[in-house]
Amino acid sequence: MNIDASALASGGGTVKVVSNPDAGFTSASVTASTEGDLVDVVGTRTKPVAASSMVNTFTVDVANGDSDTSTSALTAEATSSDGISTVSATLKASDASGTVRSITDQVWATDFDGVTLVSETGEQDLRLQKVSHLESAGTVDAPTATALRRKIQGATGSTMAAAAAPCADVCVSGTIEWTDSAGGTHPVPFAPVQIRDDETPPLGVDSELVTTVTTGLDGTYSATVDNDDGPGQGNRDVFVRVLAAGEDFSVGGQFIESPVQSEVPSGTELTVDLTANNTDDNNTAFSLQNAMYLGTQYLDTRVPGGLRFLDVVYPDPEGSFYDGEDLHVLSLDRFDWDVMLHEYGHFVANQLDIENNPGGDHSSADNLSVSRESKEIGVPLAFGEGWPTYFAVSLLQIQGAADLGVPNAGDSKYQDTEDQVITDDLEEGGTLGEDNEFTVMSVLWDLYDTPEDGLDKVALGDKVVFDRLVAGGEDDPGTLSDAYRLIGLGGAGDVNPVSCVFSGQNVAPRLADPKVTSVGKDDKIPTFTWDAGNGGDFPNDSFVVELRDATGNKLIESSEPLDDTNYKPSAAQWLSALRKSDGTLRVAVVGTQTAEPVTGPYRSCMTDIDVKPIADAGGPYSGTTAKAVSLDASVSVVPGGTIASYEWDFDGDGTYDQTTTKSTTTNVYSEPFDGKIKVRITAGAPTMKSSRLALAKEGDTDVAEADVKIVSAPPPSTSTPPSTSNPPSSNNNPPSSNNNPPSSNNNPPSSNNNPPSDNGPVATAAPRPVVKPVVVPVAKPVAVTPLPLARTGTGPLGLLLAAAGLLLGGLALQTVRRRRRT
């Protein structure tokens, strides 16, 4: 909305108000009003506005000014803001939530020397127009007009005192302050203070810069200058000029200055105090100087060396904005530090390449993908406007603006107070989704701030938020989806507090309470439901449910992509997740908005479910009576803990028959049994420690059972197995001749020496088959004539030879038998 005052300036006595409410606003109306004695609205002041662009015309009466047309009276009136009135038009409408929002445009008007003068810029511009009118009319000459302009540009409240001091030349000191919207005064921090020497005649046309010093944080300054005014010029004609500027910026070239102290004697201490008022544009520029000082000081802590020098165009009738080169500030934003630093945030984002802002109309009440009819525009526009607001509000809090006592500065709110009435409390938060700038600024605020509320349990601090966004390099963020990925570095469990903020502000899905705080293997499997996240025409529309371990960093099971907002895990998935949970099962939903350009995925805040001990009796088991059956419960687990004991109920009668510390045991059944065994496990001390996760408590128990079938053992065998001993050997050898020596075959006939059978069962291999003995024929012995003893005698040698012969004969006979048997 804006005022077209061209007809008023040409004497037509009307103003046109062009209104164009954003889509989604209702009950719009525009009201014209005036302030000052010389202008007034005639007739209807409030008129309705259609949903589309509309022009309303209001009649404005401008009264005649002072009738004194003398040169002195006209020059005095030209430099004064007296007699200047304003015409304002305010557009009001209700947004989708029913909140009434408004925006105001304003022009300045006066009747001067019989002419109606109008300015869309501000009162200072209107006073300069008066001087130009006097110069054009020939009422004043060019040098006088120059002096009048300098007076207008530097006019302010001042006090000056001169006193003798032990100062060899001229010493100048004082305090510089500015006045806020409520009338409170504040020191002007670190502003350039020029000590100048006025060159005359005429007074104020030209001056020489002698030296420049800077105010301190408390607004004080001091300087010493020589007293050489040039040959034949006497002493210096000293005055002080303070620039609305800082080391890295200048606000519109605006300044305030003191009157001239002529012919100052050497050894003089000049005390010059200046206080900028809260009405004249060159004075209110010092409110913006203070805001910009805080902004650049903060940036120096985040970007070593700061950024390039920035020119601030003030006041600019076109509004407050950053055009890619300069910052522009509307006159009616003079006391709105949030607005000023929001625009500075655009400059910072542009310089650091952390935005991809398409620009154009926007409102913090809109889903911009809807109002701008494009997700491709709406999502980056929301981030491009939301981040600068977060930047402005957070830096004022960090820089301690609340301690300065400046109205509306240093709190958690973004406020625009004069041209618009906007109060967006970042702590309360927005919930319209990623394409809404209020939601974006609220998400970033909750990531930064200290207070915990709702799902906001994180305080990353401004440095982490700033550094992670800036550190993206070529991957710098252009959307909230990009910011989520850069800020949420680390495992899913580690960054769950970040995800919780996104769920809390309705960007990520939000799980409903499953009404389950702990589960065991036999409990009912819950069905998980959730809100989709994001809003307008583009809510999240594709989801994956994740079942994670106690840390949240390890994915155990997950669903296939879903287009519904509910899911029940399968029994196999659920039991697998419980076993591997390490004590707490953490459930999350990952949501994606699939319309181009795809945004997300955003992970929800996790829901934590305590997992009870899980007993597993193994089985099924089978066996026979009188033999040991091995039982195995090693698959049992206490997630996140230990198992202190296993209690065994071998027949399922409810009485535990044995307690072990190991997961295996055996049992011998004396009778057949077809039933169940039970094992009861008891949790020991936890193996993990966590103040956040609920782990199994020592002493918790769980019971499992398994089928067992025991049958009777087979009866023992009653038959005697065949003997495996050799039969008696048949001795078919003929009797040895009495003349032969005794046979060497001394093996006696085989006798059956096996003991009698005890009719016991044969427990090993089957008996060997009995092989029929083979009868080996023996060749008829050949008669051997013995050596005559008479010839050899019966001495020892003879006997020895006879024994050797008998021995060799016997060995030969045994060899033949063995070969044939083999």
Model description:
- The model is unreliable at 727-804 and 811-822 (pLDDT under 50).
- Helix content is 22%, strand content 29%.
- Strands 3, 5, 7, 8, 9, 22 and 23 form a seven-stranded antiparallel beta sheet that branches. The protein has a seven-stranded mixed beta sheet with strand order 14-13-16-17-19-21-20. Strands 25, 27, 28, 30, 31 and 32 form a six-stranded mixed beta sheet that branches.
- The chain is an alpha+beta fold and 822 residues long.
Question: Features of this protein?
Answer:
elongated; 7-stranded antiparallel sheet; 29% strand; alpha+beta; 822 residues
Overall pLDDT score: 85
Low-confidence spans = 727-804, 811-822
Largest sheet: 7 strands, antiparallel
Number of strands: 39
Q: What percent of residues adopt helix (DSSP H or I)?
A: 10-25%
The CA-CA distance between the termini, in Å, is 125 Å
Overall shape: it is elongated
Content of β-strand: 25-35%
Please tell me how large the radius of gyration is. Answer: 53 Å
How does the helix and strand content classify structurally?
Answer: alpha+beta
In DSSP terms (H or I, runs of 4 or more residues), the helix count works out at 15
Helices and strands, with pairings:
Layout: E1 2-4, H1 6-9, E2 14-19, E3 26-35, E4 39-42, E5 46-48, E6 54-62, H2 71-78, E7 85-94, E8 100-112, E9 115-119, H3 123-137, H4 142-154, E10 157-164, E11 170-179, E12 185-187, E13 192-199, E14 206-214, E15 220-225, E16 238-246, E17 249-257, E18 268-276, H5 281-302, E19 310-313, E20 321-322, E21 327-328, H6 337-352, H7 368-371, H8 375-398, E22 413-416, E23 420-425, H9 437-448, H10 461-470, H11 480-487, H12 496-504, E24 510-511, E25 518-519, E26 528-531, E27 542-548, E28 555-558, E29 566-567, H13 571-579, E30 584-593, E31 599-603, E32 607-611, E33 621-624, E34 628-632, E35 643-649, E36 658-660, E37 664-668, E38 673-683, E39 701-711, H14 789-792, H15 796-821
